[in-house]
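Hi support team,

I've been running sequence recovery on a batch of backbones for a student project. Most finish fine, but this one hangs at about 90% for roughly twenty minutes before it completes. I'm not sure whether the input is malformed or the queue is just slow. I've pasted the structure tokens below so you can try to reproduce it. Let me know if you need the job ID as well.

Thanks,
M.K.
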């Protein structure tokens, strides 16, 4: 006769395999988030360093241009509001950073959302570091023809990231 064949692995019940893309998605999402945050933080601090070391405080370069590098120290929040609440801004930055790190990759929305959240994270940490170290933030980008406020790279990353997230959440189809 034919010898009894050993039971094959096919006969044994198996759990459904986890797709490879899902196994890598969370670490990949965190990597995108963190790398984006680090790039924003590095660009923000590099540009602030350049301004502090090459432009005199409260001056504009080039003078009279519609877009200038206008070096100021901002001890307030956005638009220089409420400078007496520096500690509160640090707490808010820490809460935002923690929330993004804990829940950001789980929010869905794809690569664009991760880049936006990374920008918010990097901008929040960068401005938070400045407030913690010196009590103020270096602002220097001044669009005289459009906005009334002077801002920096971290501010652009925060506002741009928030606009992307709000836009995506507004068009969510669940």
């Amino acid at each position: 006769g034919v010898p009894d064949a050993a039971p094959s692995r096919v006969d044994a019940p198996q759990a459904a395999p986890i797709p490879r893309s899902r196994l890598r998605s969370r670490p990949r999402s965190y990597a995108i988030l963190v790398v984006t945050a680090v790039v924003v933080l590095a660009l923000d601090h590099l540009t602030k360093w350049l301004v502090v070391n090459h432009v005199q405080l409260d001056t504009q370069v080039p003078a009279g241009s519609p877009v200038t590098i206008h070096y100021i120290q901002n001890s307030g929040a956005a638009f220089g509001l409420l400078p007496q609440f520096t500690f509160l801004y640090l707490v808010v930055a820490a809460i935002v950073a923690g929330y993004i790190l804990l829940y950001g990759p789980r929010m869905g929305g794809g690569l664009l959302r991760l880049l936006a959240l990374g920008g918010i994270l990097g901008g929040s940490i960068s401005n938070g570091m400045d407030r913690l170290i010196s009590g103020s933030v270096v602002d220097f980008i001044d669009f005289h023809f459009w906005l009334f406020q002077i801002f920096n790279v971290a501010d652009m990353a925060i506002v741009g990231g928030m606009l992307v997230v709000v836009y995506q959440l507004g068009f969510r189809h669940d």
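--
Follow-up from support: It reproduced on our side and the slowdown came from queue contention, not your input. The helical segments are 20-54, 86-103, 110-134, 153-170. No action needed from you.
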